[in-house]
Amino acid sequence: MPETITIDPVVRIEGHLGIDVTVDKGEVIDAHTHGTLFRGAEIILVGRDPRDAPTITSYICGVCVSEHQLASAFSLEDAAKVNIPRNAILIRNIIEGATTLYSHLLHIFVLTGPDYDLYGLGNDKWAELLKEVVIPVQVNCHQIVAIWGGRSPHYYATVAGGEGVVPKSELIGMTLARMNLIKRTIDEYGPLVLGYLDNHPELQDFGVGPTNFLAYGVYPNPDNLEERLFKRGVITSGVPQTLDTQRISEDVKHSWYSDRSGGHPAVEIPPEPAYGKQGAYTWAKAPRYYGRPHEVGPLARMMISGYYTPKSKHGASVYDRLMARLLETIKISQAMFDWIGMLKPDESVYEPYATPSAAAGMGLWEAPRGALGHWITISGGKIERYQVITPTAWNVSPRDDLGTLGPIEEALIGVPVPDAKNPLDIVRVVRSYDPCLACTVHLIDTNGKRNEVKIY
Amino acid sequence: MRTTRREFLKTTAALGAATVYTLYARDIASVFSAAAEGDIHTIWFQGAADAGCSISLLQGARPDLIDAITDFKLSVDFHPNIMFPEGEAATSALRDAAEGSKPLDVFILEGAVPEGNFGTVGEIDGKPVTMETWVKQLASQAQYVVAVGTCATSGGIPGAYPNPTRAKGLQYYKQEKGGVLGADFKSRAGFPVINIPGCPPHPDWITLTLSDVLRGFAPHLDNYQRPTAFFGSVVHDKCPRLGYFEKNQFASKFGDLQCLWKLGCKGPITYANCPEIKWNRGINSCTTFASGCRGCADPSFPDPPSSPFFKEIEAVPAPLGIDVNLVGETIAAATAIGIGAHALRRFALKGRQGTTTETAKEGA
Q1: Is the pTM of this model over 0.80?
Q2: How many CB atoms lie within 10 A of CB B172?
Q3: Hey, of A4, A7, A8, A86, which one would you mutate to test binding to chain B, going by the most B CBs within 10 A of its CB?
Q4: Contact B291 A49 (CB under 8 A)
Q5: What pLDDT does residue B27 have?
Q6: For the segment B110-148, what is each residue's pLDDT rounded down to a tens digit?
Q7: Dihedral angle, C-alpha A106, A109, A111, A115, nearest 10 °
Q8: Cross-chain residue pair B50–A15, CB shorter than 8 Å
């Protein structure tokens, strides 16, 4: 008889996630992801000064601390038709890069590392690694954000129109010194993780997902904004395509929001919570592109940019997600030195502009976990409508209106569960997406039956 | 080297906090070790929050978080970002403490508390348990309750107008006393909630306040129950741009070096020592090289008067003009009252020889 396993809370992710999986004959046959917390950022923003949006949206996530205010600033700059100075673009690339390095390293070491006994670690050694390697390296990443942002997490220097810190040679030197240390850690531990993955090809056999990928692109070239280190694009059913933002929409049939809450992000109404709605099971909505689920994140970015081809014969896997994240970490760490070198000391970082009384804007960017979009509508000089679609919303999305599973739900189908009390591979699949659930998300037990699950 | 509380505070007042933290970092770390030997049970619970407070804590240096985790066992009982057990195993630590079957010395809340089903953690008897239920039960069992971050102290971002989830802080909503626990709440050791605002709080505010509590001393609290050691004066008074302000020189655009007042900086109304303590181990602060204070430690955050963020504040509060000696005396006097009948102090000291069970009995 099929048995349902509930894991709630899933720990070592950021925020609140629960997952129900139904297991039959040692294999997952059904899965539901649950976002267990609703906060309503889009509701809070209505009626406020548009310039306040980057600060308020920066609090959507405490891990992607830099990306929301960047996407928000871009959306307002798009609405106000202001071009920010070259230095400001570079500073944003540096802040984004430092945050992504921090987030990826944290994921590799602290969040998913223990799922693999990656470093031959028992608990003691894990603590040692944490103290000697992880804490120092993440301190350095945050310090880079603090140099250009004032502090981290939750820096405030980014404003619509540009940045707040004019480059000084002293600040550039401080940044380089920290990047050198971060790069040394990546050089030392990167091969260890690569070697582990090479020795574990079985990780290519599960966690496939929908094999559709989407990326908004990130790290613009300051001299040609349409050229990005990580490209904008979509791969649907194996076919690379140009992104058409009009084809992005959110379904809410299975989410705790009124049925009229979904639609295209530039026109949908602020979400109307409807906890307990029939057939719904999560606070996350279901973003879709051309009505189909798409995976976002490092694997999507690396594939769409042509830097990585999945090793799994299924087109994606736990292995490919971990590998793409690691290779992306290396790539970004190298590019950081280029951007730092391109900063022009003492040159402007801010372009004054007037907040439009009526306009609409779109800020498309990438958080470490994937495509992040902010859509703003301004009316009477105030925010009339605001919509955020987070990367985790794409990945942990529930079923859509047609009943198609979200990417993580889909990736869980078929995962072997030899021991229902220790569903290690399930947790590996979920964490391979590095879900970040303050933005959005729960494994569950239907028969009211509970399992003591302890995972090291 | 050990120091007495009185000496510690006197030196703090005389030298400026930042110097002292550096000087006594080792000493503070040893306090956490002592606490660990006493097996102090701590639960760090996340309400409606973005984990930013926990991430901020990772940036601390005095002591760093690892000293705090491994020595002080800060997160062993329950901390959702870094603990190992999942699901049921994770929730059982919460349940034991909430039911009182395991002692709970310090209950730390990060995040606001949304009403009812807007936020749930785990399940009991197949039903989701609301954050509100967890928080009320855990607070009622704890010797000390500490609210970490503006969401936990006064509602913060989730509690922002129009407050869609009807979220509150532990003992305040905005400037109004009450919150989830009610205006009259006292923890088992007889203290109101100790508030450490900030979005996020500086890591040293958290670890130093906890080290105070664990050493058995009540932090001297102001009218919003914030430790005066960190929230005793406004950002503006310690701002490196204060000289520009005094010469009436104001920044006209972001990136300028002058006083950021006219660009909407909320330093003049926000109580916090950011420019002095600086962030990320002394790198910078929001009014040093950046685009100004947004009032994230103010109970109103992110609603007026802390916002609109880029609107110049109109009223000019009288500068506090802190007299170093006077502050030293005030704190020392308050401390004298704080010393004494502190269950937890006995915990920490006794626990070094005793077993867990004995220490628990001792504190009851």
Answers
A1: yes
A2: 27
A3: A8
A4: no
A5: 43
A6: 889 988 766 666 667 777 778 889 899 999 999 899 999
A7: 160
A8: yes
- Indicate whether B97 belongs to any domain: yes
CA atoms within 13 A on the CB side of A257: 26
CA-closest candidate to residue A332, choices A116, A154, A206, A144: A144
Indicate yes or no: CB of B121 within 8 angstroms of CB of A9.
yes
Range in A88-92, A365-369, B58-62 with the lowest mean pLDDT: B58-62
CB-CB: which of B53, B122, B311 is closest to A9? B122
- Residue A244, Cβ density class (10 Å: 0-12 exposed, 13-18 middle, ≥19 buried): exposed
Closest Cα to residue A393, out of A326, A295, A274, A277?
A295
Using left for φ > 0, alpha for ψ between -120 and 50, and beta otherwise, residue A314 falls in alpha
Do B221 and B302 share a structural domain? no
Amino acid A63: pLDDT: 67
Residue A439, in any domain of the structure:
no
**Are residues B260 and B177 located together in one domain of the fold?**
no
> CA–CA separation, A38 vs A454, rounded Å?
27
Q: Is B183 on the interface with A (CB under 8 A)?
A: no
pLDDT class of B362 with cuts at 50, 70, 90 = very low
Tell whether A450 is covered by a domain. no
Which pair of structure tokens corresponds to residue B57?
């804590």
Task: Note the pLDDT of residue B250.
Answer: 96
Asked if B133 reaches chain A (Cβ–Cβ under 8 Å), the answer is: no
Mean pLDDT (chain B) is 72
Q: What's the CATH code of the domain at B283? A: 4.10.480.10
Is the CB of A11 inside 8 Å of chain B's CB atoms?
A: yes
Residue-wise pLDDT tens digits, A388-398: 998 988 998 99
CA distance A202 to chain B (A): 24
User: Inter-chain contact A52–B55, Cβ cutoff 8 Å?
Assistant: no
Question: Is the pLDDT assigned to residue A150 strictly greater than 90?
Answer: yes
Domain extent at residue B262: 235-316
Q: How many domains does chain B have?
A: 2
In a domain, A449, yes or no: no
Tell me the C-alpha distance between B103 and B84, whole Å. 21
pLDDT exceeding 90 applies to what percent of chain A?
63
Distance between B120 CA and the closest CA of chain A, angstroms: 6
| Residue A53 placed within a domain | yes
B132 & B271 share domain? no
